[in-house]
Amino acid sequence: MLVTGGAGFIGSHTTDRLLELGHQVTVLDALTAPVHRNGRPPEYLSGAADFYQGDVGNRDLLTNLLRRVDAVYHLAAYQDYLPDFSRFSQVNVVSTALIFEIAVAERLDLARVVVASSQAAMGEGLYRCREHGEQTPGMRAESALARGDWDLTCPVCAGPLEMQATPERISNPQNAYGMSKYGQEMVAVNLGRRYGIPTVAMRYSIVQGPRQSVYNAYSGACRIFCLHYLLGQAPTLYEDGEMVRDFVNIDDVVDANVAALEDEGAAGRVFNVGGGAAVTTREFAEVVRRHYGSDQPGRVTGEYRFGDTRHILSDVSALKELGWAPRRGPAESVASYASWLEGMEGLDGVLAEANAKMRQLGVVRRSADVRGTAGEGGAGGTAVRGTAGGGGKASA
């Protein structure tokens, strides 16, 4: 079995599980920065797996490895800085096409290809207007964000929208990463169907847990909040702190990856892999604050990240039909990540470096109007206009 990106966050945990289940595993990873700033991670990349350092775009290397295996987890991905438009497509889409190109040219008998997609392929997701029904809104205007107008409105009547849990039928990506992941899904699932290669695309929500690199500038709420509180700082909550997110534990993700390999009903499909609960970033920050025993709540400063979605919650009912379910919550993810950080050296400058990078690239910006700052540690701010259950505030 080949695991591309097998030295990374999701890839290494998946590799460990496959080895536990008795599979022979080959890992291919380029060990590129910022994730692998210090090269191969000796503390968890097991010697039981054959390891090759190289790029998934290297045709000769990839061909030689594919000839040796009967299944592929294509988990190598690029996911950090928003303005790297071409790199997203090159790493995420072209490498996927190359796997199928090689499989067809070599007439390989692959029992399964599992591809790492993302919740970002759904963009802002599914909403409902009371008057005009289902809506899939586009990206929020920069002019609105600059004013501090965070919430989406109906594109027909400009009325309020209620967030819905978003099923796999919705594909509406609005940033370069999400577009590349949707492209990757289409390449993998459609070529898999055409050439008889059983293929599954997994739309991971925000995956949390140990081994998530501390060096990514953009991704990882658990990483960002834990680093702040570990270093004695209060984290910044973007927008008003009431953005809804869908956090899923790494062990639940690995469970889903195994189900995608073993269940015959998974082939040819796209699955959401989420935590099953709507959680605001303020609420998630509070989980981290409580873990560290800090008296400093998250700070709302009027800053926002250009290109972020306002709310997103994945409908995981399709994957549940295969017998999978999310079994671990945010508190468990935070505890395991915090434990992994203990004793790690060189963390003092990580946050400042990431913040400087995002400002340099124009990712982090500031609105002219800061709203939702009242009671920064509690439930102040703009309330979520509806959840998957049809109303009410999201809960952790």
Overview of this protein structure:
The chain has helices at residues 9-20, 59-66, 85-105, 142-147, 176-195, 221-230, 250-262, 281-292, 317-320, 330-341, 350-360, and strands at 2-4, 26-29, 50-53, 71-74, 112-118, 127-129, 133-135, 162-163, 199-204, 206-208, 236-237, 244-245, 247-249, 269-273, 279-280, 299-300, 303-305, 364-366. The protein has 396 residues and is α/β, with parallel strands linked by helices. The protein has a single domain (2-366), classed as NAD(P)-binding Rossmann-like Domain (Rossmann fold), CATH 3.40.50. A hairpin with a 3-residue loop joins β6 (127-129) and β7. α3 packs parallel to α5 (176-195).
How would you describe this structure in keywords?
disordered C terminus; 396 residues; alpha/beta; 18 strands; globular; Rossmann fold; 7-stranded parallel beta sheet; single chain
Mean of the pLDDT scores?
90
The arrangement of helices and strands along the chain is: EHEEHEHEEEHEHEEHEEEHEEHEEHHHE
Fourth-level CATH superfamily: NAD(P)-binding Rossmann-like Domain
Reading off the top of the CATH hierarchy, the class is best stated as: Alpha Beta
| Portion in beta strands | 15-25%
Multimeric status of the protein: single chain
Evaluate the radius of gyration.
21 Å
* Number of helical regions: 11
Tell me the domain tally: 1
Structural class, by secondary structure, is alpha/beta
> Would you report the number of β strands?
18
Sheet with the most strands: spatial strand order: 3-2-1-4-5-9-14
